[in-house]
Write a structure and sequence with these properties.
The protein is of the alpha/beta class. The chain has two domains: 214 residues, Aspartate Aminotransferase, domain 2, CATH 3.40.640; 122 residues, Aspartate Aminotransferase, domain 1. Helix content is 41%, strand content 14%. Strands 2-8-7-6-5-3-4 form a seven-stranded mixed β-sheet, covered by helices on one side.
């Protein structure tokens, strides 16, 4: 099998075994608590080092002093950021701004918050602006630093929340003006059931899960120490090799992208020229994405039609919400890559796509 659906989930790389409860007072509990603390420090250090524009000591100190909370995954992190912020600031109408084509784990909690605590608007005066670092469908990279600077120039108290699921450990980011940043373990070869939310000091959130007051009282429940330690190991490895991995992925992306030159009526779907090589969205006009995806799967190539979380939803697709035509959206498939993929796999995958598109088009008389 050739696995080109890494934006959905990735293959785990490490598997340490630490099952002790970090809240227990005995020696093994203390060992687990120490492992958890070290992992938190390890990941925070990588976030600070990855910060592309933090040249000042003050900026780096601000990042290091922020709180890194561990959750069950990116979806919980996003819910905690959006609903937790709305709960903590309910005395004032909460205005949340976000593009409608963002990931469902951002849109759904925003709608929930809108119904109960405030309103959702597309406005530069929003009290919270939510956006992704890398778009999960097209790979477009948002200029987070510029967007944050523009928003805070007009509203210095605005909260900027960035979903880093598709950019974490893959693309460099400036967090100097970011207040909340989420990430997901299984998107970067870590275990399922682990995620994180970094929050700047001073940002107020209310917990969604109550109980033992773990994670600074913002996320009760026994921490997944084994998963967190595993994630920290993966993050450290990917951070060191970030530029090398990106260069490798770019070659794979180029091979697959060349389908546009060899197949007529084929488009690469992006909103800008600044895209991550890890995600490539293409439309093969005349061939439904669903049919092509199943045909490729039967021949050993795993791709998708977009975010797995959208697969059960009805209504307009993310591409349509971005402004792409229904024809482009219906014929789109998403390739998403990992540093574990090879150029040989890309050449094989390209040949499979080429043959199947030609075959399916011929069957339709195109």
């Amino acid at each position: 099998m050739i696995y080109f659906d890494n934006a959905a989930t990735t293959q785990p790389l490490f598997s340490p075994y630490i099952f002790y409860n970090p809240s227990s007072p005995h020696q093994l509990g203390i060992k687990a608590e120490r492992a958890l603390r070290n992992a938190r420090s390890q990941i925070t250090s990588c976030l600070v080092a990855n910060n592309s524009a933090s040249s000042s000591i003050a900026a780096r100190t601000s990042l290091t002093s922020g709180d890194l909370l561990f959750t069950s995954g990116g979806t919980e992190s996003n819910n905690l950021a959006i609903i937790g912020y709305s709960l903590a600031n309910y005395r004032q109408p909460v205005v949340i701004s976000c593009a409608q084509y963002e990931h469902p784990s951002l849109i759904a909690p925003m709608r929930y918050a809108m119904q109960r605590y405030g309103q959702m608007q597309d406005t530069s005066t929003a009290s919270m602006t939510v956006l992704s670092h890398v778009n999960h469908e097209t790979g477009d990279i948002n200029d987070i630093a510029q967007i944050a600077a523009d928003i805070k120039a007009g509203n210095s108290s605005a909260i900027i929340f960035v979903d880093g699921a598709q950019g974490f450990c893959k693309e460099r980011i400036c967090l100097d003006m970011i207040d909340l940043y989420s990430f997901s373990s299984h998107k970067v070869h870590g275990p399922h059931g682990v995620g994180g939310l970094w929050m700047r000091k001073g940002v107020k959130l209310s917990p969604l899960v109550h109980g033992g007051e773990q994670e600074n009282g913002l996320r009760s429940g026994t921490e997944n120490v084994e998963g967190v330690v595993q994630l920290a190991e993966v993050v450290s490895s990917l951070h060191v090799n970030m530029d090398k991995n990106r260069s490798h992925i770019s070659k794979i992306n180029t091979i697959m992208r060349s389908l546009q030159e060899e197949l007529p009526h084929t488009t690469v779907n992006t909103l800008s020229s600044n895209t991550s090589p890890y995600i490539l969205n293409m439309s093969f006009i005349g061939v439904k994405g669903e049919i092509l995806t199943h045909a490729l799967s039967e021949q050993g190539l795993c791709v998708s039609m977009g975010a797995a979380c959208r697969s059960r939803k009805t209504g307009k697709t993310a591409l349509e919400l971005m402004g792409f035509s229904p024809e482009i959206a219906a014929s789109a498939i998403r390739f998403s890559f990992s540093h574990l993929n090879t150029e040989e796999e890309a050449h094989t995958a390209k040949a499979l796509v080429l043959a199947n598109v030609l075959k399916l088009r011929k069957m339709k008389g195109l």
